[in-house]
Amino acid sequence: MRLIVVAVGLGGLLWLTLRLRAVLVPLLVALLVASALRPVSAALERRKIPRSLAAAVPMLTIAALGAAAGWFIYRSTRRTLESDAVTEQAVRERVEDWLMSSPFDLTKAQIGGAERSFRSWLSSGFNSFGVEQATSIVQLLGGAILATVLSFFLLKDGAQMWSSITSRVDPARGEAIRRSGAAVSGTLSAYVRSVALTGIADGVLIGIGLWILDVPLIVPLVILTVIAGLFPLVGAVVAGATAALVALVAVGPSTAFWVVVLTLVVQQFEGNVMQPLIMARQVSIHPVVVLVSLTAGGAVAGLAGAFLAVPVVASVIAAIRAFSADMDVDADRVATAVVVDDTAPA
Hints:
By secondary structure, the protein is mostly helical.
């Protein structure tokens, strides 16, 4: 009977989470950002900088770095695309020569038919863009704006809001709850560090492979890979597809094929070995839990679920450990008091 009640409760919680994901996802993202930037904001506050400015500076710095990276990628890509080697005619000839050679042995007529089919499919995809897709984009932009605003206020007033909440709790459990909150914040910060480390390692491995294959735009592609590492599943696909496209346009189909192979190998190694090990070290959970959390989160809530599953699970585990530690201390105190009372003279 208890298992049925627990299952129903978990099912209801999952249903409620899915219904409120438009608010919960930005809130969880804001908690991640605030936890990661809190040490910088706290350091600025200790230098007598106003809280609003101390919260805004790290966020504006991240935004400026992102804008600078985007501008660098744009300028580098534009210079490469303006070269004679990447004109439409040159790329077309390289692709046709590759497809007409072994093992494909296609004719120009077959290539032309495939090209017309691809253009028709692409056109139908754009034509099918409607209200549902526009609504999704608006929701995504709205969620990003909400997450940004929440991140600022959590950086600015998060400590005060948490103190206000814990001050209303029974003093016997107040310290345990405060310690649980600190554990959650530390875990979220460690998760962001682990994702950043994984993305950097991923970018370095991809960059070495691109250098060996003599693919241009190595630095922009490495930067893009590191940034894409912040977005599980879709980030790897976007970074790999971009690298393969650059190789196809600038070098040739054969190099693009090997770039795809390189990306798949690195992403498999990163997703199944490197990421679980780094996360397990940073957030103190077993790699199996990381893999199961990623898979379950993606299956339940798609990209957002995969992105937030590990930090949520790790935070819950950290909070339970911190709260249980206080209960263990209380139990030890009670046991000591009983022993002392038993040994006292009658």
